[in-house]
Design a protein that fits this description.
The chain has about 450 residues and is of the alpha+beta class. The protein contains 17 helices and 23 strands. Helix 9 packs across helix 10.
């Protein structure tokens, strides 16, 4: 999972892209990059780390031009190396081309081995580089046709930004797994993974790029093309559960509103007598508020999250119990002590973190701890860009709810039902990918019966 942002026709394109990437920082903290165009040459600045740490004024000054695009990389099971940072920039027979990708291709390994057999040389382990090779090798003349030719060969989840010296292109896969929105900033066009990026730069949201749509932005304005067969919509429901920012609108819905509705439905399904409802921040906050409003049980912030946790910490030689969790979360003893606590989280993957949180709450004096999860049990790995473990490591795939409860040491454990979650979306309930909950994969591929696809 990554964040992508692009702008066409702005005198400060790189600076606008920098701000857009900052707004999308939650979608990837491993690396960040910006490529700009001055109409003749493409300029690139890419590095490991956070947006604000990478892009000094000196680096932004090197990114001249009226077109720019950027990418924040989310760390999956692929190698965390600079060579895998995006956007990827290449020179080929038709000029220069930059590409940024949010998603995961399920047939990338097959295409890569085929290309390598014919002499292609890859410089990274990214699935994204496969798309670049396919565009470069296409026999078509126009950029649009080369993109169509390349994209028609790939399968999986992809929202793409492609840039040449004079054009900015947005592409969304026919299933619409990942969000991609179009905005307007005065006379400039903007593309972004989430609408929260538009808010920061005061751009106006125009519409979502449709599944299977290609838009080309150039001096001729914006042109839209829909060259691919219509597929069943398969928006990733986990964007609502965890990944997207609450102030964003994706897939036609506000994230914060949907998360609150998940919490309300969870309360209707799984009520229990308690004194207080607390979230596991940050993604659990809207659902906990919804649960509180529906149940009439008071809401409070019984766990405080540190927002300054880096990637690596040196633990004292005298070991601290639950060190990793304590770095991120700390209970407020005055709120919790002597209370029957309902703790709301968005999901349980392996269960190890949830177990440590419950221990922390009990140490803080909680009389009872009731765990409520605002999504169904995660029983299957994701092949479309969410970094989930293989199925053997997913606790809900190998244990009953009662066995999970005992492992967590909770007084009770309940999940939001799949039907209850889907009903929040009303007439659009069939527009979502639920593969991590039901094992039904919208895009099939050779080897999908394996425990987990390598993510890039």
């Amino acid at each position: 999972m990554c964040g992508i942002f692009g702008v066409y026709g702005h005198s400060e394109a790189a600076n606008i892209t920098y701000l857009g990437l900052h707004a999308l920082q939650h979608r990837g903290q491993e690396s960040s990059g910006i490529v700009s165009s001055d109409g003749k040459f493409l300029h690139s600045e890419i590095d490991m780390g956070l947006v604000a740490d990478i892009f000094s004024q000196d680096r932004l000054d090197k990114l001249s031009g009226h077109i720019a695009m950027g990418h924040n990389r989310y760390s999956t099971t692929g190698a965390s190396l600079l060579k895998n940072a995006q956007p990827i920039l290449v020179d080929y027979s038709r000029g220069s081309l930059a590409l940024a990708h949010n998603g995961n291709l399920v047939n990338a390994a097959y295409i890569r081995s085929e290309l390598e057999a014919y002499g292609s040389i890859f410089r990274s382990t990214m699935d994204t580089e496969v798309i670049v090779h396919l565009i470069a090798q296409s026999k078509e003349d126009k950029l649009l046709d080369r993109v169509i030719d390349a994209v028609s060969r790939i399968k999986g989840a992809y929202s793409l930004l492609i840039m040449t010296e004079n054009e900015l292109v947005g592409v969304r896969d026919p299933n619409g797994f990942r969000p991609l929105s179009l905005g307007k900033l005065k006379d400039s066009y903007v593309l972004a993974s989430e609408t929260c990026a538009f808010d920061l730069i005061e751009a106006k949201y125009e519409r979502d790029i449709e599944p299977g749509e290609i838009v080309i932005i150039s001096q001729n304005g914006i042109q839209s093309y829909k060259p691919f067969p219509i597929s069943r919509r398969s928006h990733c429901v986990f964007e609502f559960i965890y990944f997207a920012r609450p102030d964003s609108n994706i897939f036609g819905e506000n994230v914060n509103f949907i998360r609150q509705e998940f919490g309300r439905q969870l309360a209707r399904e799984t009520m229990v007598d308690a004194d207080i409802v607390i979230p596991v921040p940050d993604s659990g906050v809207p659902a906990a508020l919804g649960f509180s409003l529906e149940s009439k049980i008071p809401f409070d912030m019984g766990l405080i999250r540190s927002h300054y946790v880096g990637r690596t910490f040196i633990e004292p030689q005298q070991a601290i119990r639950h060190f990793g969790v304590k770095l991120k979360l700390n209970p407020v003893k005055k709120i919790i002590e002597g209370k029957r606590v309902i703790v709301i989280d968005d999901s349980i993957v392996r269960g190890t973190t949830s177990r440590k949180i419950i221990k922390m709450l009990r140490d803080a004096g909680a009389r009872e701890v009731h765990v409520r999860i605002s999504s169904p049990p995660t029983t299957h790995p994701c092949f479309y860009g969410i970094d989930t473990p293989n199925r053997k490591e997913l606790i809900a795939a190998t244990h009953t709810i009662e066995e999970v409860r005992r492992y967590l040491t909770a007084d009770s454990l309940s999940y939001l039902s799949l039907e209850g979650m889907l009903n929040i979306f009303k007439e659009r309930k069939n527009d979502f990918c639920m593969s991590c909950f039901d094992g039904v994969y919208p895009v099939s591929f050779e080897g999908m019966d394996t425990s987990q696809l390598e993510l890039f």
